[in-house]
Batch of 3 targets.
Target 1
Amino acid sequence: MKQPLKNKGAKTPPTTAIAEDRVGTTQLESVPEPKYWQLKTVLSEALDSEFSVGEILPNERDLAARFGVARATLRQALEQLELEGRLQRRRGVGTTVAPPRMGVSLGTGPHTWPGGSEDAWQPVDCAAAVPPAAVADVLETGREESVHIVRRSRVSHGRPVAAELLYIPQSSVPELSGIDAPSGAARVRAVLRELQRLELERQENAVELGSAGADDAKELDRLPGAPVLVVTTRFVVGGRTAALSVATYRADTCRLTFGDSGGVEIHDGPQRQAS
């Protein structure tokens, strides 16, 4: 009987390939790890120990010379680190160290309305408009009925990381006045203030991987089609949906966390864990 292949030393990179054996089954076969992948690991360690968030990396020629690799290999490693959210390439600036990922908590902690004292979302504007049909169905409003659509944003270390559309039926905020806060951020705060008068029964979260549409891509400073995390939150009062939040997060800047805490937390240090 063939013995399974083993990693014969700590210095041998743990890599695999699939090969057919003589009886048609498959086994793991050791192959060399790509050089750029090894370099990515070394660079990642250097980012943790030598650089701070926002710091500009040396140019490609200097980095390639330092690590003794071809510039093509270096570019592959840098591209991989950018995909993982460790680096950020900015036109006219260069390659900088990205902030730590933002923790998106989907825990079972206390339920709260948007706009509370610990809510870090920034109000953008609010308008009355007909929502998408799928949203109208969740809100149980007529498909031609206008609702309040609140736009908010999240920023971390000076860069946009999330955008939110909050749909609120007019029946959820019947006392809202258009005189005191006709538009803009003031209107957002007025809508959320009225919403908080309701007794929140529960909130339900769902998350899925998606791709950025034109509007989200522009707001999040990404290309259309870039990967995003879409977190949908349904706020329930009296068994009915009182509000629906659709928040779009940059997938390269966020991680999902599961626990007892609620809300979203941003952690400034790379060693701290999101919760």
Target 2
Amino acid sequence: MTDQIRSSHDGGVAVLTIDAPATRNALTLDLSAQLVEAVARAEADESVHALVITGAPPAFCAGADLDTLADAREDGLRAIYAGFLSVARCSLPTIASVGGAAVGAGLNLALAADVRIVGPKAKFVARFLDLGIHPGGGMTWMIQRLVGPQKAAAMTLFGEVVGAEAAVESGLALRLVEGDLVEAARELAKPAVGAPRDVLLATKRTLRHTAALTDHSAAVDAEIEPQLASLTAPAFAERLAKLRAAMTGQ
């Protein structure tokens, strides 16, 4: 079977699955390019409100393909990065469903999502120094923002492997799921699916913007224009009318 990014769009959620079982879903240049295209298709589909990224069991993603990595120079590295960076830059809300090992570039892919949910066999492994290479793709920036400098140092400098329960405890993952991870992601995405898409995308843009702010008043200013726009949109008027009707029993 040819390695591929399997893509399904259903019920407002796009599910992208790395399907390369022989290499435990390692990212080749071709798979990274496919992932970029799949993310772009999801963003362009007006019916899609959220994106889920996962890997065919048993792994999430074993990292960059080692042969590809061995031959890579700057252009090659950036081509490998392109797949997970497309998730990091995605305008849609994103969820990584991590059921197995997320290693190296696979760790980066998991970190690139807005939210991570994990199965019992999930584990997060930096591995860069173990291979004798420097971290790349913004890994050091992403991991420190999520778990803080001490945990990030333990994972990056000392090779600490973070399992499912520890990932939740450290804030690396949102929750541990015993059952179907993709269905759990769909359930998590339901409020996003039910929201007006333009307001949803604007809210994600604002989250990115305000994350870098240090002043409360600047955040108020950043939010007021898109909030005013949403208050004058037909979707708000329709929902307000339904809510009032429900409150009055009409």
Target 3
Amino acid sequence: METPDHATENTAEASEATGIAAQDWATASAEPQYRAAVVDLLGALAYGELAAFERLAEDAKLAPTIGDKAELAKMAAAEFHHFEQLTERLTAVDEDPAAAMEPFGKALDDFHRQTAPSDWLEGLVKAYVGDSIASDFYREVAARLDTDTRSLVLSVLDDTGHGNFAVAKVRAAIEADPRVGGRLALWARRLMGEALSQAQRVVADRDALSTMLVGGVAGGFDLAEVGRMFSRITEAHTKRMAALGLAA
């Protein structure tokens, strides 16, 4: 996953760390509910990275040139490396990676099935817009994680290069045929709605994760902050749409 401009990244550094955010994993994980929330988070991230790898490999089939295929293959390899980092971490904390990912498989598979791109350009927009929304969400959560888990989460959200690649290709396509812009703008709006709905469903279905977000775990978000969080994610989406040359 990637979020090229890291539009919401400031949340992790905006204030001095306190509570769990100032602790390491060994200390923070003594709280069972927090440990369960982190296992959920890493499981969701791991499945998301695995799905991103699979999707990029499929998108490569739609690529118009050998060079484009090679770029997507390189990005897919980076996503799979992120997946390996997450599953290795789950194993290191005595959790079964497959069991941690399983609760999130259906929701993520449904999202990808409902937003299957019809062509190369829609695939690029989906990766840029959809993955960036997910990355922004996880960056927001990372601000409240223990230091060890936060470092891992932020490292797997590093830009794989897909962002700049997608922007260049989409802008070139719109310049060649301005009519493409309208279709892709509608597509991106649909992706935004589906991605936010999916994030909310995933959190609502997992008690430990939702409790952490709304403040049930020390240092978590309160309900007002959750609203502000989604507002920041929406603002970041608007900036990315502008980068693509599309209306939000």
